[in-house]
Every structure is written in structure tokens, then in C-alpha cells.
Specification:
This protein is of the alpha/beta class and about 240 residues long. It has nine helices and seven strands, in the order H-H-H-H-E-H-E-H-E-H-E-H-E-H-E-E. The chain has a seven-stranded mixed sheet with strand order 3-2-1-4-5-7-6, sandwiched between helices. Strand 6 and strand 7 form a beta hairpin. It starts with a helix and ends in a 6-residue tail after the last strand.
């Protein structure tokens, strides 16, 4: 890691942010993600910043762009604000801003170092002026600072996917997902809006998603693939008009 730290100082990155340009500097546990860096951010060589942990959670750019297109095309026309509840290093947030669909994108991230990366990466892609950034817990920020925009908002959430069985179970129990279960996500978001898109593991239990639908509504589930394999699914709750 010494070379990586030296690299950070040479180009004056904030503590904990890195732009790796040599595989020899990359920690062994993220090297497979580094090999995919141009699928994660096509503009990586223009100075993308990442924390070492952020590599594990960022949405690959082609997937992020397709999700952004689906939400832009299917959200009710009166919805003009997109809230990205778990912005991470900015992959999805940037794609939402690039879509041109939203009057404003609100991006929330509780880790200040990861947030610094996201802000910088938005500058790399030239969309920084389309995004308002919030540092802190997404549930608190939505409740205290964004409650007034609920009627015109859509929430996108790509939560951490921790918990027993996430990688091994044929069908993943969303009530065991950590640190947030399906219900600890949906319940507070629904106090703001019914229009919610959840980015979840590809093996998520569809019966659990169907059982969380309100009334006569429905949820549409879309698998997003890269290189011929499903990377994840998105469950769309509310009034999205997906085919």
C-alpha cells in the first residue's frame, strides 16, 4: 500500500482517496475490480477517485446508464427530482445527471471520504452542477431535509448487500440483508414517496418483493447484465411504466 499512499500525496488527493494507475500499487483484494476499471468508469484515466472499499459497491457504468434510462423513461412525468439514497463513489448519481431528465439529482452518502470521491468524479464527467450533495444517514436526511420534495421525487437505492447467504444461497433472503433489510429500506422511503427503485442482488427472493407491493399495485423486476451474465436486479415499486 506504500506506493498507493505515495501516489495519493503526489497528486494531492484527500486522505483515503486514490487514483491507481499501476497494478503494483493496487491492494490484492481489489485487483480484479481494477482490471474492470473502464467498465466501472469509462473516464477512469481522466482522474477518477475511489476509496479502496468503494470498488466493491460501485455499479458498472453500462448498468448505471441503463438503469438511469429506464427510470427516466418510466417515472411519472410530474416527478422532477431523483434522490440517490446511497450515492457511493457516484456511479449511479452521475448516470442520473447525464440523463437530462431531472430538474435536480439529490445524492446522499454518509462516508465523507467516499463523498469526496463522488463529488470529484461528477466533475470528471461534467455533471457537478446538476447534483446536490448531502453527507449523512439517508433516512435522517430524507426525513429532515427532503420531506418537502416527496411529491415530486423518485428514490433510487443501491444499499450494501451484506448478510449470510448473499453469495452462496440460490435464493437470497432479503430479510437477512445487512445492514438494511427489505423492510428497513422500504418503510422509511415510502414515507416520502411510493416511487422507489431498489438495486438488489440478482438472486433476491421475488416472492418477498411481491409481498411488499401496496394494494392493487405491482412491482416490476429487471435483471441487468454485463458480459452475458446478470450483475444485479432492480425492483421498481410505484407508478413506473416499465413494459
Amino acid at each position: 500500500m506504500a506506493k498507493g499512499k505515495k501516489r495519493r500525496r503526489e497528486i494531492d488527493l484527500p486522505e483515503g482517496c486514490f487514483h491507481y494507475s499501476d497494478l503494483m500499487d493496487v491492494p490484492w483484494d481489489i485487483q480484479k475490480y481494477y482490471h474492470q476499471r473502464y467498465k466501472i468508469f469509462s473516464n477512469y484515466d481522466q482522474g477518477i477517485w475511489m476509496t479502496d472499499d468503494a470498488w466493491f459497491g460501485v455499479t458498472p457504468e453500462p448498468v448505471a446508464l441503463k438503469i438511469a434510462q429506464h427510470i427516466a423513461d418510466s417515472a411519472p412525468p410530474e416527478k422532477g427530482i431523483l434522490i440517490d439514497a446511497f450515492a457511493g463513489a457516484g456511479g449511479n448519481t452521475i448516470a442520473f445527471a447525464q440523463s437530462g431528465r431531472w430538474k435536480r439529482v439529490y445524492a446522499i452518502e454518509k462516508d465523507p471520504t467516499v463523498l469526496a470521491c463522488a463529488k470529484h468524479n461528477a466533475e470528471v464527467y461534467g455533471v457537478q452542477d446538476k447534483i446536490s450533495w448531502y453527507e449523512g444517514d439517508c433516512f435522517e436526511i430524507i426525513q429532515k431535509e427532503l420531506v418537502d420534495v416527496g411529491e415530486v421525487s423518485v428514490v433510487f437505492a443501491s444499499p450494501p448487500w451484506g448478510g449470510p447467504g448473499y453469495r452462496s444461497d440460490e435464493v437470497f433472503d432479503l430479510s437477512n440483508m445487512q445492514p438494511y433489510t427489505i423492510d428497513t429500506l422500504l418503510e422509511p422511503f415510502r414515507k416520502l414517496t411510493d416511487n422507489i427503485a431498489l438495486y438488489l442482488p440478482r438472486t433476491s427472493d421475488l416472492r418477498q418483493l411481491a409481498s411488499r407491493v401496496h394494494g392493487d399495485g405491482k412491482t416490476t423486476v429487471v435483471h441487468y447484465c454485463l458480459d452475458g451474465a446478470s450483475k444485479a436486479m432492480c425492483a421498481y415499486f410505484g407508478a413506473f411504466s416499465l413494459g
